């Protein structure tokens, strides 16, 4: 094995690879990007042309030097035509650009979601749900606005600035030089602004994620909060986090307040220069009223592109901050490796073998330390042991939720790591300790593992798992919507649905992690009786705390401190008086 | 604005009158005015951001506070993801408008008004001409308002649905992966993602028409002013300075108009967000304090359910239940799932109020007590315990935040949490992640029991608290329970006879009715639902009792409550 642990918490990407990643997403949309850029170019030309025509109108038709007044309407007609053309060009530019942003956002979200589907359990152990969700939703907005507005607007701004400079220099070199002398300072100020605001905006993003997490926790744990009447503590905790966001946003606003109006003041210096020196030139007759108008108008038109550059820079910072974390996940998180030379499973019932299996979570201490266990094809084996002994960890190795840190897990005689993950998971059905159902109809929950399962098989599984028992009492029977928007099933009912789902899966190996803990005794009895036939021919591993469930099994093993300490039939083990007897024996002795 | 009147002065009196001094003075005044504007804008940005963020903070906190008072019914009807979106993305949308938007709004509204006034001051005729574009602008704005409001509502809806889908996938990832359901979920995601993309694109389409259209109208206005102004100039009733300044002023009308419209989109989405937030804030807490509610005094624990009927929807799940638990006694509820046991317990915790009848503690109707002062004296241990992010110690301390470290350690030791904690380098200071990942169900349950023990409640509710725990751990807990239950009124819902037999009274509940009632021994002695239940518990809890029951229906029950506790205690491992 090349590495013991998968990397599931990579550091944020630095600026350059982040920019490259964003550029790649941008280029993926090259068609509409091109449309947007072409329109931005035409738009710049038109925005320069309109004041130029008006300048001619003033100089030739309104306030001519010569005293001969040309007709005004042709000039104005041209302006109107240009304006109409600009309307269409501007519409196209905006729409194309905005669509680019929306598409990139959707694409980025899809990349993340696809990645989430591949990420190993270790990733979900490490990162809170709120954070994972937020990265595919809220965190993407700066990226969308930056690409959907910032990039094209930025390029257009630069073209506009350059265009205006060229026109002004053509009209009057000296005046243009005076007017534009303040501009380099705009660039400097913008740069300084960007440097200051970036770390703060990163921090704000993180603080917002904290709020999401706090909200998520309180909403999910509301029953506990209310049960103990601790609303005010939770409110105070949330308040601290909300306050931190406020402080962060205000810090950001203070920086913006310090820089942005300065960015706006600098152009007024240019205008002052034009009024003063231009005005003297008008007096001297070196400049016409029309040219004076042109200078003034173009300098006004310069304000927005400059301002936009400032915004784009700040937005760009936020976008790269967000993207650097997203790309870090997309690139830096290792998934459970697929075999380079996949083997296929043999036909028929599959045995399971754990060979000297060691396992630990991350860098923690060992949870499993040398498990040796052979489960024959078709055998039903109970995995017992005190709380925290490693039962769940052991079972989670079978569908490769985790890989052992040492030793091998064999399914059907093949190392699980040599099987395509999809094949392995098709062969192994698991019922997790906490039953997870989806907010879809009961029917779809049951067939989630095998949507094309024949209905009579589903019904049979429901009979065996005790779902049929309550399904008929649900408002819409098997079509009842489950979950927060539909019917809330009890813990025991959820477990039974999860059990039925695993039976429907038709897997040859079934892993049941304490599948009946929340089921009432009468139902459990029913399940225990029906489960054996339903599981016939399959290899089954059941972790359980109940003797009644153990007795479904052919054999029981007892795990303690990460090793198997006992193995045998339940009766043998009870008679032996070891840990198994301690675990379950009191149930007898207590009543004696 | 004033700056532009200066420019007019500079043109008319400076340039036309060939007065260079006047020109210089004008320029200096112009710079001074702009300098002043700079300073004002800086303080405005800071001031408004402060105001905006205070509003956001207040709203977020109010919303959260309100949520915590809503009943469990609300949380069972709304998706968690939906609720969380209100607290996060909706509030953030408002925050954006308030922090950046408010400045834009104030600065641009002022500029716009000043520019219009200025136009009329310069020359009222030109002012009127410029205003010809006002009606179409208003029509356009109204159209945009209506369309984009609807569009943004749809955007919000689709993003909410999408967020919920992602949240559900992330929390159910283990199952998705275990059953190779990635493709199905991906296609479901793609549908939601596409829907969001389409609604977003439409909203952007509206934006893309609106702003260029306003720009076009601006040029039309400029052309109109130049046309009329040019003629008036010809007649000599207008100066060139006034005309040029008017054109500049028009810029000042349209630039703010554009920025305001730009802001409009943001305001739209914030408005949509606010609407959703309002629906949450308007949801009345189903369980709330009556104005006449009194602080709960120290509860002795005499608990009466007086003909309590309750339904979640149409059909009652409890039918006129009568129960009396005397102070310090233990009541066990047994029966099949769906019989109404948990509902009864939830009513005692006042998570719901009965539809008919009343629940009284020490003679006080629960509805007459301040909810929080009552619940502070309540302890609840659920089957699926929820742990909060924080250390194990924090979680134990949850219900009693000012408990000392020594108290926490005592409780941890009493329940056996210290044994779990030994597994981690940092012991009780081990950081538990959200939901308690990394701990087994039994370990989480032990922590939640320690939490209830430290809370030192007067009334204790245990809802299948021991079902996830292995026998040795359970024995530890049973011992802890003996201590925990002493002197407190308790309601236990359990499937294990070993847990049930400690109760002073047992109620068998079936289909929302009490079908049998009595002590453990009494109930076993007669033919009835409890005997049937007990017989089914053959292996589960009291193998011996169950087996004997099957063998001999008339078997006298062995082992009183005292002796059973003793034998449980004696068989503790270690």
Which residues of chain A sit in consecutive blocks of at least 5 with pLDDT less than 50?
Answer: 587-592
Distance from N terminus to C terminus of chain A (CA atoms, Å) equals 53 Å
* CATH homolog superfamily of the largest domain in chain A: ABC transporter type 1, transmembrane domain
**CATH-defined superfamily of the domain at 2-282 in chain B:** ABC transporter type 1, transmembrane domain
Can you count the helices of chain A? 21
Mean pLDDT of chain A equals: 86
CATH architecture of the largest domain in chain A: Up-down Bundle
Tell me, briefly, the overall form of chain B. Answer: elongated
Based on DSSP secondary structure assignment, what is the total number of beta strands of chain B?
12
What is the CATH-assigned architecture of the domain at 2-282 in chain B?
Answer: Up-down Bundle
Annotation, overall tally of beta strands of chain A: 10
CATH class designation of the domain at 2-282 in chain B: Mainly Alpha
The CATH topology annotation of the largest domain in chain A reads as ABC transporter transmembrane region fold
Helicity level of chain B: 55-70%
Q: Outline the low-pLDDT stretches of chain B.
A: 538-574
Mean pLDDT of chain B: 80
In spatial order, strands of the major sheet of chain A run 6-7-8-3-9-10
Which geometry of chain A do the CA atoms define? elongated
Largest sheet of chain B, in brief, is: 6 strands, mixed
The main pleated sheet of chain A reads as: 6 strands, mixed
């Amino acid at each position: 094995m090349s590495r013991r642990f998968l990397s599931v918490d990579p550091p944020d990407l630095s600026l350059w690879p982040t920019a490259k990643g964003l550029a790649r997403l941008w280029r993926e949309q090259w068609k509409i990007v091109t449309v947007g850029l072409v329109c931005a170019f035409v738009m710049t030309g038109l925005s320069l042309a309109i004041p130029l025509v008006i300048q001619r109108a003033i100089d030739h038709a309104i306030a001519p030097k010569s005293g001969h007044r040309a007709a005004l309407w042709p000039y104005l007609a041209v302006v109107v035509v240009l304006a109409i053309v600009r309307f269409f060009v501007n519409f196209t530019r905006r729409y194309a650009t905005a669509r680019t942003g929306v598409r990139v956002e959707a694409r980025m979200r899809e990349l993340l979601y696809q990645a989430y589907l591949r990420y190993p359990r270790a990733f979900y152990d490490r990162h809170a749900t709120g954070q994972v969700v937020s990265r595919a939703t809220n965190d993407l907005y700066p990226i969308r606005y930056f690409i959907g507005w910032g990039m094209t607007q930025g390029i257009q701004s630069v073209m506009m600035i350059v265009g205006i400079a060229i026109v002004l220099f053509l009209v009057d070199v000296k005046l243009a030089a005076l007017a534009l002398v303040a501009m380099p300072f705009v660039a400097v100020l913008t740069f300084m602004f960007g440097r200051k605001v970036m770390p703060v905006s990163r921090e704000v993003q993180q603080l917002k994620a904290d709020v999401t997490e706090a909200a998520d926790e309180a909403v999910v744990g509301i029953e506990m909060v209310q049960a103990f009447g601790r609303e005010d503590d939770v409110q105070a905790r949330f308040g601290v986090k909300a306050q931190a966001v406020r402080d962060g946003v205000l810090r950001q606003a203070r920086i913006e307040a310090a820089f942005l109006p300065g960015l706006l003041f600098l152009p007024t210096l240019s205008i002052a220069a034009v009024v003063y020196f231009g005005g003297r030139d008008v007096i001297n007759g070196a400049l016409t009223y029309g040219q004076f108008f042109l200078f003034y108008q173009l300098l006004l038109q310069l304000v927005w592109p400059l301002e936009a550059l400032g915004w784009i820079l700040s937005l760009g910072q936020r976008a790269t901050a967000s993207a650097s974390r997203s790309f870090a996940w997309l690139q830096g998180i290792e998934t459970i490796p697929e075999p380079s030379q996949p083997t296929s499973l043999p036909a028929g019932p599959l045995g399971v073998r754990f060979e000297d299996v060691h396992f630990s979570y991350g860098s923690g201490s060992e949870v499993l330390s040398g498990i040796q266990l052979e489960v024959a094809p078709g055998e039903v084996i109970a995995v017992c042991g005190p709380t925290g002994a490693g039962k769940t960890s052991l079972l989670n190795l079978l569908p490769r939720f985790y890989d052992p840190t040492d030793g091998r897990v064999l399914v059907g005689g093949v190392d699980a790591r040599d099987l395509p993950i999809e094949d392995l998971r098709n062969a192994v059905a698991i019922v997790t300790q906490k039953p997870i159902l989806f907010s879809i109809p009961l029917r779809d929950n049951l067939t989630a593992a095998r949507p094309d399962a024949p209905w009579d098989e589903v019904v049979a599984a429901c009979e065996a798992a005790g779902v049929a028992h309550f399904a008929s009492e649900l408002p819409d029977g098997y079509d009842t919507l489950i979950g927060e928007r539909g019917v809330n099933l009890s813990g025991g009912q959820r477990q039974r649905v999860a059990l039925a789902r695993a039976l429907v899966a038709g897997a040859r190996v079934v892993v049941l992690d304490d599948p009946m803990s929340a089921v009432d005794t009468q139902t459990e009895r029913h399940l225990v009786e029906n489960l054996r036939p339903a599981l016939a021919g399959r290899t089954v591993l059941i972790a359980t705390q109940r003797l009644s469930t153990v007795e479904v099994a052919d054999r029981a093993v007892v795990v303690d401190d990460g090793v198997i300490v006992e193995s045998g039939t339940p009766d043998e083990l009870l008679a032996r008086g070891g840990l198994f007897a301690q675990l379950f024996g009191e149930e007898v002795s207590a009543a004696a | 604005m004033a700056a532009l009147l200066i420019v007019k002065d500079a043109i008319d009196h400076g340039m036309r009158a060939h007065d260079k001094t006047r020109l210089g003075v004008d320029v200096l005044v112009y710079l001074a005015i702009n300098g002043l504007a700079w300073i004002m804008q800086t303080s405005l940005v800071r001031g408004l951001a402060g105001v905006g963020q205070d509003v956001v903070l207040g709203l977020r906190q109010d919303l959260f506070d309100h949520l915590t008072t809503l009943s469990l019914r609300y949380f069972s009807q709304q998706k968690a993801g939906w609720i969380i979106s209100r607290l996060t993305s909706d509030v953030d949308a408002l925050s954006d408008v308030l922090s950046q938007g408010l400045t834009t709004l104030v600065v641009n509204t002022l500029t716009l008004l000043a520019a219009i006034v200025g136009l009329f001051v310069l020359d009222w005729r030109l002012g009127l001409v410029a205003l010809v574009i006002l009606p179409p602008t208003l029509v356009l704005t109204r159209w945009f308002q209506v369309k984009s409001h609807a569009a943004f509502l749809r955007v919000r809806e689709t993003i909410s649905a999408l967020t919920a889908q992602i949240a559900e996938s992330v929390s159910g990832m283990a199952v998705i992966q275990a059953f190779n359901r990635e493709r199905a979920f991906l296609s479901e995601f793609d549908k939601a993602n596409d829907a969001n993309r389409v609604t977003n694109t439409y909203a952007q389409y509206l934006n893309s028409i609106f702003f260029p259209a306003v720009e076009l109208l601006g040029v039309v206005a400029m052309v109109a002013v130049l046309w009329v102004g040019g003629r008036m100039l010809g007649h000599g009733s207008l100066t060139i300075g006034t005309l040029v300044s008017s054109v500049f002023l028009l810029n000042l009308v349209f630039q703010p108009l554009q920025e305001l419209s730009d802001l409009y989109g943001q305001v739209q989405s914030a408005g949509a967000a606010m609407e959703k937030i309002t629906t949450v804030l308007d949801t009345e807490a189903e369980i709330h304090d009556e104005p006449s509610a009194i602080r709960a005094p120290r509860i002795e624990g005499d608990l009466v359910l007086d003909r309590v009927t309750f339904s979640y929807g149409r059909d009652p799940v409890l039918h006129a239940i009568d129960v009396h638990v005397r102070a310090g006694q233990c009541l066990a509820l047994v029966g099949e799932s769906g019989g109404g046991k948990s509902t009864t317990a939830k009513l005692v915790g006042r998570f719901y109020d009965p539809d008919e009848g009343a629940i009284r503690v020490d003679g006080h109707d629960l509805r007459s007590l301040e909810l929080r002062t009552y619940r502070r004296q309540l302890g609840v241990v659920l089957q699926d315990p929820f742990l909060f992010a924080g250390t194990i110690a924090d979680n134990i301390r949850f219900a009693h935040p000012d408990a000392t470290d020594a108290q926490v350690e005592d409780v941890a030791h009493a329940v056996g949490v210290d044994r779990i904690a030994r597994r981690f380098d940092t012991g009780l200071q081990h950081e538990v992640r959200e939901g308690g990942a990394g701990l087994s169900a039994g370990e989480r349950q032990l922590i939640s029991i320690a939490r209830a023990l430290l809370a030192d409640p007067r009334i204790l509710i245990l809802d299948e608290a021991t079902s996830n725990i292995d026998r040795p751990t359970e024995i530890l807990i049973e011992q802890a329970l003996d201590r925990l239950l002493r002197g407190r009124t308790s309601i236990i819902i359990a499937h294990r006879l070993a847990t049930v037999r400690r109760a002073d009274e047992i109620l068998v509940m079936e289909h929302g009715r009490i079908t049998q009632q009595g002590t453990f021994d009494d109930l076993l002695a007669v033919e009835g639902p409890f005997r049937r239940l007990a017989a089914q518990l053959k292996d589960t809890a009291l193998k011996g009792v169950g087996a004997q029951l099957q063998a001999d229906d008339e078997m006298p029950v062995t082992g009183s409550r005292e002796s059973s506790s003793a034998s449980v205690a004696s068989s503790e491992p270690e």
